[in-house]
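Example 3.
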Amino acid sequence: MSSHAHAGGSTVHAPMAEPSGFIRKYIFSVDHKVIGIQYFLLALTAVVIGIVLSLLMRFHLVWPNATLPFVSGGQMSQEQYLALVTMHGTIMVFFVLTTAPQGGFGNYFLPIQIGAPDMAFPRLNMLSFWVTFLAFVSIIAAFIVPGGAPISGWTGYTPLSGLGEITGPGEGWGQTLWIVSISLFCLASLLGALNFIATTIDLRAPGMSLMRLPLTVWGWFVTAILGLLAFGVLLAGGILLLLDRSAGTSFFIPAGLVVNDQLQAHSGGSPILWQHLFWFFGHPEVYIAILPGMGVASHILSTFARKPVYGYRAMAYAICAIGFLGFMVWGHHMFVSGMSPYSGFAFSVLTMSIGVPSAIKTFNWLGTLWGGKIQFKSPMLFALGFVSLFVSGGLSGLFLAQPAVDNMLHATYYVVAHFHLVMGVAAIFGIFAATYFWFPKMFGRMMSEPLGKIHFWFTFVGAYCIFMPMHFIGIAGGIRRYADASAVGFLAHLQPVHQFMTIAAFVTGFAQLFFLFNFFYSLKFGPKASKNPWNATTLEWDTDSPPPIDNFGGHYPSVYRGPYEFSVPGAVDDFIPQWVEPSQVARAK
Amino acid sequence: MRIRKRNSGSAATPALLSLIIVVLVAVTVYVFASNLPWAVRPAPITSVGAEIDHQYDLTLAVAGTVFILSQLGLALVIFKFRDHGQKAHFTRGSNTLEAIWTTATIVLFLGLGLMGHKAWAEVRFTPAAPDAIQVEVTGNQFVFNFRYPGPDGKFGKLDPKQISASTGNPLGIDANDPAGKDDIVVPTLTVPVNHEVNLLIRSQDVIHNFYVRELRIQQDAMPGMVVPLHFTANAIGQYEVVCTQLCGLGHSRMHSYLNVVSDADYEAFLKQQAAGQ
């Protein structure tokens, strides 16, 4: 299949035959588009579960003594709350923020945007998805095993996670399944990353030089490189942690620990080693979640402002710089861990410097909008929301990047507010923007604009109502991962703010029904989409909606220009697609 | 030139979005500036804490300015450049502006970061003075224990095999070590005002954390390590000690107090505890 891509300019081949049979076509498909939709639907399932878990947490924080019908014993216990914390974080980070932007949209659109008929390794692609699916089954199974879901947080810090059920409920089977799940996820993501990198390097259409790649492709490409280097480290860490738990090794456990009056038979390990391994993955993971969103935001801002991306090269280099620096800052999660304070200094300087490419991106997004002719369709609204949320969430990083200031804010709700805005909500806005933007291409129908706008207003205002006050709670010393605030005197007066946030969370959570309804209703009843409903310029708009099995129906496009040729002086139309030969561009007389 | 249908959108959407962003900026600035009770930290009780506050305020000024300018800038372009039938202005960017902007952010962010290291260095690079009062802090699920070396000035050896909370030896002080006979173990931390205190922070089981808001300091209690942390409290009073590192189902109940007392009260505290050992 991949040989087609090398076949030269706009050549025409016999169209590829679609596989017959439901299972080959929709379940064990090797078509990157079907696999992309599978990833997307997996993420959609996961995000619904993740939101429900977060609403239960918000409910418990405000009404800890309420009787809940589905909780054994009626009232939620401390360990049940901590299980929610752990599972919400794990499901959202891995199965939503990593799965939807990269596995979903990256899989679907990277090959089409570079003019390839599929991924470089279609069977490997299928394997990646199904291993990810197994990982998801494993994490969900943690809810129903004896002892329940793990309580050690999405970071799984050992020895809490490494000594078995003696350290607490959920630390038996639940924790084991958690480790199995993230290890499988790492394996799947490694395979996926290899595929993305090979595809981007080898399968670009004639004329698609690196500096003509859509910024979305830059985002997915650099994300894949991050994934290749980061997931392997967590995979190794996960295996070592599993061995500590089940084979009596002591990679992460020092001598002389006494839990529950019982001396533990481990010696020689270091719990801080797990933190290094975890965050060596965990910080790049933040960029794995956000870089595709940055690509999507740039792409959509340019399309709906009818202007080229301002400073395209600077944007592409900034993505690379963020990816590169992203590997050198993991220690800023560990300022108070007992790590050498001199390391803290180095990690701090490197972390502050990551603000520079982030600021370049923000500057260029505003530059792209400046002088534009902005059309406020749903994808554009979410892309604009992305910019606002990314700025708000990114700036609080300036505080946390300084170890001295981190000394007072570490492990408070300030951190929770920071990472939710910048990698949670901003990345989700990137996913929503991508969904509204590409839905017509993926499913051949348009989504409803009015419903999209209502969804945006509720989500944008709601997200700020939830996460802006959270900063204030953190400054006042509100500590994260507390199931109940009653034991600490200084937390009591923060409860009214928690109440406000909980109400905002419920309103915002229920507003997502507008999206779900719009999605499924439009799938069946939306107006038919044309080939290029947004008058956009990149290759996915050169093919049918939805695209045929080989993406371009036996025709392989050539590329003649950069990806964002909007409002070019002298041209009749306000966009010149990448695939149009220079002689075919209509010029004003 | 071909006549194109004028398909400019309504001004309502950009106007509403700009308005929301302006309100967001106004409310955020108001809350930060007006010291509402649930958005303030207590006054620091160390000089380092005051320095950290100073650095925090400086960072707030920088981040706040960037926040206000960029959000209002976004609101402005959203409204000003809405589609009202105009032509988009074609540009691919400006290398000069990129260079100026990049240089400015490098200077601003790195300068801010470097300035913030004075407070960090004072807490963490310099060890405590030799005459600082030594107190060992031990976390276990879900309590803090504080150990003073007693009149001999020496901590007794610890033996994990001898740990037994029920017989009054929660830390496992070695019964065969004479230095341990006079050690004082208490559930709250009492220190004299204006004396340097050096905490030796450790854990018996999982990772815990020692955090006092008024000290502006937190430090993980990392199993297998003893991490020193020093401070000089300058205000008499009682302050809450909490654990900020997820340590199990009782995490939110792991709680103690820091009592900063006069020299006389501190001597009385030591005498009373020594008598009780």
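Chain A touches chain B through 121 residues (CB under 8 Å). Chain A has a mean pLDDT of 94.
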